[in-house]
Fold each of these.
Amino acid sequence: MKETLTFDFCKMSIYDNYVVVVMNEGVNITPDHNSILVEVTENYFLDKPFVYITHRINSYSVDPKIYFETSKIENLKGFAVVSKNYKAKVNAEIEKMFFNKPFETFTKMEDAFTWADHLVKKTK
């Protein structure tokens, strides 16, 4: 891991090929939050492919329209949701419809890491 960033709504862990995000309990993710994601990715992944992994430990809501903007991040190659919670997985399936890049759900973090590394290597 390169670095961990803490914001008022989440914690982000930056790795070579992906960023792992844990949102805080009860947060409603809006386009304003997305602008922070864009800023972080520009700082850590400038001209380098990466995958966004959200570890859904806490309960929070996402405005699905946010995925239209997130999809525009050119070097973002995929999006993964990691959760053992059935409701979080169902929500992820709905969110997937708003995202036009690879989007997968996983139960284990290690599986998401493997998928992300493969996706990044495939696009280099």
Note: The radius of gyration is 13 Å.
Amino acid sequence: MRNSSIPLDMTFTSQARTLGIFAAWTTFVVCEVYAVASGLAYVSQGAAVEGGPFLSMMAILVVVMGPFLVLSMVAVHTYASPNNKPYSLAALAFMIACVTVTSCINFLLLLVNSQPELFSESWRALFLPCKWPAPAFVLDNFVWDWFFGISMLLASPIFGGNLLKTALRFVMLLSGALCLVGLVWLAVSPTQAIIISILGWGAAGPIVFLLLANMFGRVQVETGEIPAP
């Protein structure tokens, strides 16, 4: 008996396109502001950000960025072809997990850093100084390495065909691979592992959303463009 063909997916509407462009661009901009803030903190403190106003600013930026990460992946899910919907749905789920946990961690970090008198010394020790091996720092690195990394790997098969989409797939694979390598490398050298992880979600990650915003911007939904299978 011959199987019936899968109908074309028309869920990528102009509204989804607009949402994807806005969310991806916002994610990229917030990532770059975060990078500038961390750079200024390094220049002023001469070391990794372990406390102070710059740490509070960076925590706020992570919380602000969270919803736009999720909205970007919602747009990716609507863009994906029917055959790739399982990948895009799984990528969205892992991104929601990443954003949920990191938002909670960074909101608590903001409160502990800005109003330490409200918390006991044992509670503050979970967050400050914000470096290895503080439990909150370790957990935050884990969720970015694991959930964000897997989200990137799962989303990568959705894209391909022209040069822009191929570049997007490559950078997604690179970002996800670096995140997972950084996580595994913790057993060898935490310092080196954190650097590898930052290259994954902090360097390649923003490029993913820059390319994603440009890709969505070039989709002509009014002409009935169908995502590549």
Note: The radius of gyration is 19 Å.
Amino acid sequence: MKTLDNLCLLLVIVGALNWGSIGLFGLDLVGFLFGGQLSVISRIIFSLVGLAGLWSITLLFKEKVPAETH
């Protein structure tokens, strides 16, 4: 489960950076790198980022394990 959480976090970061580049520079990085917003690969990436965002909602409700102190 930790691997899935980390993968989702990575995808959410990709989405955040993409939205940041759109907001600041008007540049859709995913679309630019993968052949436009409507290309199949871009749509897959956008879909995976959206699913990762939904999964990340569950991270808000997971019980936190306290860090070990030495």
Note: The radius of gyration is 15 Å.
Amino acid sequence: MLQHSRPSGDFFAGMRAIFPLVVAVLPIGLVFGAVAATKGLSPLETTLMSALVFAGGSQFVAMDIWTHPASWIGVGFAALLVNIRHVLMSASIGTKMQSFSGVKRYVAMLFLADELWAMAEFRAGATRLTPAWYAGIVTPFYLTWVGSSLTGALLGAFFGNPTVVGLDFAFPAVFIVLVMGFWKGPETGAVLAASGAASVAVHHFVPGVWYIAAGALAGLATALWQHRAREQAA
């Protein structure tokens, strides 16, 4: 007879699972807040951006192209290119949310950051993904991101250039760990190599943030080619 864990137990299990990434996202939020402060955003504006947008990659890209007055079309289009990957992420994790009601599923998608998606995929691969467990990983991660952004904005002058103290490496370090969690051998390496090569090439020759979309499409095309090759060999 199957025994279902209590929601409170699932919630705290999710909090324990996400704790290492909460620690990792703290310096990233501090860096974002400091960068936003150098671009002229107030602590309130920085906090609202993190709370409402909640997408570290697109927020950093927005800061890269931020001007006064801001080009809202340019910033919005850049954010769209950066976050287009969420279409695939939500399609993947959505098939594993059988225990989520319609409303809970839509709310969950609003908090689908890369780290949270990866943790949810790992969980779904091992056991049933529940709303309580998902809330357990979202709550501390979201609050830490928003709180660290505010702190970084308030202490922007103190932090100065984040590259000097190495805080800028926190972002790629987190993604390296996440990628290694999905490593499945040479096929994964081929996808990463294709994505990286396309991103570097487009970044070198094409202005703007098109390199992000190029890397995603190259990785997707490589994965599809591998899948078809396996089907033909079977």
Note: The CA atoms of residues 111 and 224 lie 27 Å apart.
